[in-house]
Amino acid sequence: MNVIVVAAECAPWSKTGGLGDVAGSLPKALARRGHRVMVVAPRYGNYAEPQDIGVRKRYKVDGQDIEVTYFQTYIDGVDFVFIESPLFRHIEGDIYGGSRLDILKRMMLFCKAAVEVPWYVPCGGVCYGDGNLVFIANDWHTALLPVYLKAYYRDNGLMEFTRSILVIHNIAHQGRGPVDDFLHVDLPGHYIDLFKLHDPVGGEHFNIFAAGLKAADRVVTVSHGYSWELKTSEGGWGLHNIIKENDWKFSGIVNGIDTKEWNPLFDVHLTSDGYTNYSLETLHTGKPQCKAALQKELGLPVQPDVPLIGFIGRLDQQKGVDLIAEAVPWMMDQNVQLVMLGTGRQDLEKMLRQFENQYHDKIRGWVGFSVKMAHRITAGSDILLMPSRFEPCGLNQLYAMMYGTVPVVHAVGGLRDTVQPFDPFHESGLGWTFDCAEASKLIHALGNCLWTYREYKNSWEGLQRRGMTQDLSWDHAAEKYEEVLVAAKYQW
Ligand code: ADP
């Protein structure tokens, strides 16, 4: 098949979270299965590999005529196409920033340009065209694409056999606004019904995700747990009824990980500053070396036997950073070290810095977005904490397990799917889970984890070994995506 993945971010060029990782790696796995695959993303900065291919197009956005330029490169079997426009330029540090209308205009332009890529952008000299073509759009930012495909093409007897899949990575962000926002999106009047949603909090409003979910031929979300939660009023954030009505086209597929990028044996961030690459065979020496290097780099006392606990993620309500904060006084009595890496809400960033000042010999709060530090913390920590209130899939717990770092997680969404709780009687499981987003539950789970770390070395090694030997690659997930591609195309 010809597959075009359209996403607002794509690692390594742009990334604020899991979506960037998925857009960078799922396409490669689909290409390995023999499909012709392209990724389309905005060009936020000057990227090294993609070249201007000399194609210019103009699109109307809110009455303004805007020129876009297409850049292209081919890596690991995938065509990467970047759309350049003044609206995207120089916002790489804040790609979802600006006013509601600014973001809406950016995403409109992006979707209008992306839906035409198969006609105007030659890859390897040949445009994709509409033969056997399926678009995979991601989250609300590109949820207009299935709508434009329908309104501009299929309603007019064009691209009749092209299909679209919309992937929900996080339902909490939906592109909501007043109903009048419809006037901006450049669609025939009767399309307004797709966007209108009545919300108990805000009343009737305009909702881009709602329109995308209705217009897409298939909908995927990033874990089984989350696909269930999305149908509940707590988990669906107002869209649960639409998801329930569209259940027939809905599937949950757990994300994979890029096993080249996130592999302790090949990790390029572990080749200097005292870190070292390691595998299951060299875990005994390699991981302690990484732990010592991390302690040294962070200026923490280098203590091999003191458990080092890591947290990596956006600092917001979703990630449960406040639960960790509540548990900090207890943790500080346990002779542990804690390192937290994140950016986000200013009050939480301030809190991280305060913890570091208050407990300078035990806590480091690294405020910033550093891919290198994310890799080093994953390798050097013994334990990774993920107390997320909700977590569609979660990638950090998967990375942690690949590095022999044991996860302690709130059993929700993808975390529940991927971290089977440790069972000391059968020596099975992958980490510790707690069933309610409360500090006392986190403390209970972490307490058991620390006890096992200190007293039951064999059990600990078993947890590490089971984590490291899982097949977490994209290959399995890509097979599942392929089933959805086929269903979108042929099962009606
Ligand atoms: P989400 O997409 O909800 O943010 P995920 O766990 O799915 O959460 O993915 C988060 C991704 O972003 C991971 O690759 C993680 O390592 C990365 N990440 C999050 N915060 C930071 C940060 N401050 N520095 C570097 N990488 C980060």
UniProtKB/TrEMBL annotation:
Entry keyword Kinase: no
Lineage, uppermost ranks: Eukaryota, Viridiplantae, Streptophyta, Embryophyta, Tracheophyta
Pathway: Glycan biosynthesis; starch biosynthesis
Cited NCBIfam families: glgA (TIGR02095)
GO cellular component: amyloplast; chloroplast
Domain called Starch synthase catalytic: residue spans: 2-244
Classification via Gene3D superfamilies: Glycogen Phosphorylase B (3.40.50.2000)
One of the GO biological process terms: starch biosynthetic process
Keywords assigned: Amyloplast, Chloroplast, Glycosyltransferase, Plastid, Starch biosynthesis, Transferase, Transit peptide
HAMAP family listed in its UniProt record: Glycogen_synth (MF_00484)
Entry keyword Chloroplast: yes
GO molecular function ontology, one term from the record: alpha-1,4-glucan glucosyltransferase (ADP-glucose donor) activity
Entry similarity comment: Belongs to the glycosyltransferase 1 family. Bacterial/plant glycogen synthase subfamily.
Annotated catalysed reactions: [(1->4)-alpha-D-glucosyl](n) + ADP-alpha-D-glucose = [(1->4)-alpha-D-glucosyl](n+1) + ADP + H(+)
Protein name: Starch synthase, chloroplastic/amyloplastic
Alphabetized Pfam families for the sequence: Glyco_transf_5 (PF08323), Glycos_transf_1 (PF00534)
Top class in the EC scheme: transferase
Localization annotation: Plastid, Chloroplast; Plastid, Amyloplast
EC numbers on record: 2.4.1.-
Domain (Glycosyl transferase family) ranges: 304-423
Highest taxon listed in the record's lineage: Eukaryota
